[in-house]
Amino acid sequence: MALIISPKTADKHINQLSKYFDLEKVPEEQANLEFSNFNNNFYQAKVGDIPVYIILTGYGGASVGFAVAQYEKNYKSQDPYPVAYFLGSIIKANRAEIGDVLYAKETYGEDEWSQAIYKIAEKKNLKDIAKPDRRIVDKISEIAKSQDIKLKLGKILCRWHPGFLEDNKFVIDLLDEGMWWKFVLSEGEYENHDYDGGEIECASFTATCNLAGIPNVSLLYVRDQRTAKGYGDYQYQLADKENKKRAQENILRLLKSSILLLKE
Questions:
Q1: What angle do CA 127, 118, 156 make, to 5 degrees?
Q2: What HEC string does 113-149 produce?
Q3: Per CATH, the architecture of 2-155+198-260 is what?
Q4: How far, in Å, CA of 249 to CA of 20, rounded?
Q5: How far is C-alpha 260 from the geometric centre of its chain's CA atoms?
Q6: What percentage of the chain reaches a pLDDT higher than 70?
Q7: What is the pLDDT of residue 3?
Q8: How confident is the model at residue 231, as a pLDDT?
Q9: Rounded CA separation 11/254 (Å)
Q10: pLDDT digits over 155-214, tens only?
Q11: CB atoms within 10 A of CB 174
Q12: Domain map of the chain by residue range?
């Protein structure tokens, strides 16, 4: 039962996943994730004869970390293929380009959940808590090459709490101009940073999986970029529909092919 986790719960995301994995809701009597919002977004599928669980968690590092912890407690021991994949999107920072597909070669989460896991890992002397499983990365890289999918790698920062602005009009401004724009434009505390993109959950996913001994990787696409403060065409750009769809489907192709190789 390979595990797929995504924070995206919209119908269009579920429909896209269904095209590749023929999703079915996990029956109520088999849904043991403790939180009803997880169980209400808990799906199963088969890739070849390999069973797959899919949890759509909603946004937030703690939500994703808790979902992984629930899988470990209630399903991992029964799973002949305990491998976890995170699907998400990032805002462009340095080397990435809008529409790119990449895997997170290293993550860092500023959120409370990730920070707690880092401290636990340090006390337990666990190494590489913020990095994916090398064997999965190698397999996915080979698949990408064979399918002519350009797969990049990136160092990803995860956070979702406000920064500071002297003259914010709305609280949301503290998240946008006060935090993400400073990050993207390498200003303030993020001056000259070496991250390739920003996201919310993949750091907590990676750290929790590694603490639980679950091989894992995060597959991401570059959804948007900001070149200046503001929301005009010059300052803010989203991946166009075609690029976005292509990137998402390339990720799902990589994912499906990777799961098929778990028996090897």
A1: 85
A2: HHHHHHHHHHHCCCCCCCCCCHHHHHHHHHHHHHCCC
A3: 3-Layer(aba) Sandwich (3.40)
A4: 9
A5: 21
A6: 98
A7: 96
A8: 63
A9: 22
A10: 999 988 888 888 888 888 888 777 777 888 888 788 888 899 999 999 999 999 999 999
A11: 15
A12: 2-155+198-260
Beta bridge pairs of residue 45: 52
pTM reported for the whole predicted model: 0.94
- In three-state secondary structure terms, 249 is helix
11, 1, 3: which is closest to 218 by C-alpha?
Answer: 3
Expressed in angstroms, the distance from the first to the final Cα of the chain is: 15
Angle value at C-alpha 54, between 48 and 59, nearest 5 degrees: 150
What SS3 class is residue 172? helix
What is the identity of the amino acid at 62?
A: A
Half-sphere exposure of 93 (CA within 13 A, CB side): 26
C-alpha span between 160 and 65 (Å, rounded): 14
Output the six-digit token pair for 110.
Answer: 């500023």
Residue pair 23/76 in contact by the 8 Å Cβ criterion? no
